[in-house]
Design goal:
By secondary structure, this protein is α/β, with parallel strands linked by helices. The protein has a single domain (about 15-235), classed as Alanine racemase (TIM Barrel, Alpha-Beta Barrel), CATH 3.20.20. About 40% of the residues lie in helices and about 15% in strands. The protein is built from nine helices and eight strands. It has helices spanning about 15-30, 50-55, 70-75, 95-100, 110-125, 150-160, 180-200, 215-220, 230-235, and strands spanning about 40, 60-65, 85, 105-110, 130-135, 165-170, 210, 225-230. Helix 6 links the parallel strand 5 and strand 6. The longest helix has 20 residues, at about 180-200. Bound molecules: pyridoxal-5'-phosphate. Pyridoxal-5'-phosphate binds near residues 45, 88, 214 and 232.
């Protein structure tokens, strides 16, 4: 009997990545999406350079972080890995200089003042950044992001800043067990994107929708996500000690 007992695969980063990718692909198939159209953004916040290095050996090259200080700490020991650091957390304007030096992309752009600070620093560095606008799709006080109604005006201003290439929108759904409420958040981001596209400034195509995390990425894929941001389902539980 023991011979027939199913053996659990070892709990390594590689097996967690394979399991996760299989779940993403299965959700795509269930919802009529092409798996090639849903990217995985591993979120490495709180995890150290050794684990991130292991992840790069499996082909991962972009990593999401929500604190600029963590990017500063990790960029140097991982300088040989060719990582694209993606800022996904609330950004203070006084961090613009570090972001302009170290990040490849910002998904949490939520106000003009921040965009202008980034633009100034990027010009000094002679660099450009891909950006997503973070939009608030739930009423939770703790979530940042701009109100959907403010998106058209911000988009028009951003079209004038050469250093920022607007690629799409990002959101966090309400933190809830109510699946319908979660899906409503994701659906509203897609609807907003479709509306914004109708009179988007020239050159801004808004192809990307960054939505879905470890607990809700399947619903996000159902609603059109092009990029899921996954931390704990890949790296394991975080400890903030
Ligand atoms: C931490 C974080 C994630 C990933 O969260 P998990 O639940 O661990 O997958 C995604 N997006 C943002 C903005 C985050 O801060």
């Amino acid at each position: 009997m023991a011979d027939d007992a199913p053996t659990l695969p070892p709990d390594t980063f590689a097996t967690r990545l394979a399991t996760l990718r299989a779940r993403i692909d299965a959700a795509c198939v269930r919802h009529g999406r092409n798996p090639a159209d849903v990217a995985l953004l591993p979120v490495s916040k709180t995890f150290g350079p050794d684990l991130i290095r292991e992840a790069t050996r499996l082909g991962l090259k972009r990593f999401g972080e929500n604190k600029v200080q963590e990017i500063r700490d990790k960029a140097e020991p991982l300088a040989d890995c060719g990582i694209d650091w993606v800022v996904i957390g609330h950004l203070q304007t006084n961090k613009a200089r570090d972001v302009a030096r170290l990040a490849a992309e910002v998904q949490s752009l939520d106000r003009l003042e921040l965009a202008q600070a980034l633009d100034r620093r990027l010009q000094q560095e002679g660099r450009a950044l891909d950006v997503l606008l973070q939009v608030k799709t739930s009423d939770e006080e703790t979530k940042s992001g701009l109100a959907p109604a403010d998106a058209p005006a911000l988009l028009r201003e951003l079209a004038r800043l050469d250093t920022l290439r607007v690629r799409g929108l990002m959101t966090l759904a309400v933190n809830s067990d109510d699946e319908a409420a979660v899906r409503t958040c994701f659906a509203s981001l897609r609807t907003l994107r479709d509306q914004l596209r109708q009179d988007a400034p020239a050159g801004i195509t808004l192809d990307r929708l960054s939505m879905g995390m470890s607990g809700d990425f399947e619903q996000a894929i159902a609603e059109g996500s092009t990029e899921v941001r996954i931390g704990s389902a890949l790296f394991g539980a975080r400890s903030y000690a």
